[in-house]
Amino acid sequence: MILQSGAPVAVAGAGAFGSATALILSRLGFQVTVFDPVAPGDNASGVAAGMLAPAAEAVFDPVSRGHMPVLRRGRDRWAAFAEDLGIALDRGGLSIEGEASFLAEIEAALVEAGADFSRQPDGLFSDEDWRLDARQALATLREAASEAGAVFDPRAATAFAEGRLTLDDGAVLAFDALVVATGAGGEGLAPELSLLTPIKGQILRFDTPMAEGPVLRGKGVYVAPGPRPAIGATMEAGRDDREADPAVVEPLRVAAVHLRPELAGASASIEVGVRASTPDGLPLVGESRAAGVILAAGARRNGWLLAPLVADMVAAYLTGADPGEDAAAFDPRRFEG
User: What pLDDT digit, counting tens, does each position of 157-167 carry?
Assistant: First the structure.
């Protein structure tokens, strides 16, 4: 698929993937309209803790073992992307604490992943991992995309065929291409989306501030410091509801207080988002079997980490450029057969 600058392109989904893609495509001169019925920030990207964490993902998420090189490339793309937009990146790194047997297990995993790390008196430390303020970054992306000419429409895309996009209110609009960046949604927009499994994630936000520093990881929990520390996160495969479940997140609270006793007794709220994952944990990025559709979905826990990289790849597919060395790993057809 090769489109000329000025062509109308629809983007379904205004999360990290969709908003970053809208920005890149708008700056290339495409007429971009982003369709998403959800209020800005009220999605998995807005709820997320904003981790740009190749080391933690490659070590603590079994599905992402072996993905360190591509996750690191995604993180590195953020340096220029964030500077251009004025998005602050916290490069405080990752601190890991726990019992000796737990630390030995994690150290072996860090070595296997090829992550840079060092031993510290209280555990392990890696400077591989960064983070950002997810809600603030999402608002910045939306504003920058709007300034570049993108239009955000609070309707949902329900079908696309022969250059005609059908919306949830029955309207039918003409577009040369559709980019599907709907996360766990988008049913009916592309056959490959049937590969995705929804994953409900619940995060605790404590009201007790913590001094800035590295993200702290212990067994079964992370603590991201700041004015409202994020404690996370559950991974409830197969669930796509947005209901908060205090019983499910209680183990997170207990584990966080074990690591940082000063959090004991602090009030906290629960935030819920629904992600989507492929069987191998890497997103679907590239041309769908549905004509005119480009996929950018299924990021698992790495929507923010991979957003600029994926947006660049989508632009490459639409303009006939080289999508880069991760094209095969992200190919939506890699599971066929």
Answer: 999 999 999 99
pLDDT digits (tens, 9 = 90+) for 221-231: 999 999 999 99
**H or E segment to which residue 45 belongs:** helix 44-47
CA-based nearest residue to 214, from 138, 134, 122: 122
All residues at 6 or more sequence positions from 146 whose CB lies less than 8 Å from its CB, including other chains: 152
For residues 133 and 130, give the distance between their C-alpha atoms in angstroms, rounded to a whole number. 11
Cα separation, 135 vs 138, whole angstroms: 5
Peptide bond into 276 cis (omega under 30): no
Contact (CB, 8 A) for 160 and 193? no
Which domains does the chain show, CATH number per domain? Answer: 1-50+133-196+279-337 (3.50.50.60), 197-277 (3.30.9.10)
Three-class DSSP category at 311: helix
Overall residue count recorded for the chain in this entry: 337
Main-chain dihedrals φ then ψ at residue 132, nearest 5 degrees: -145, 170
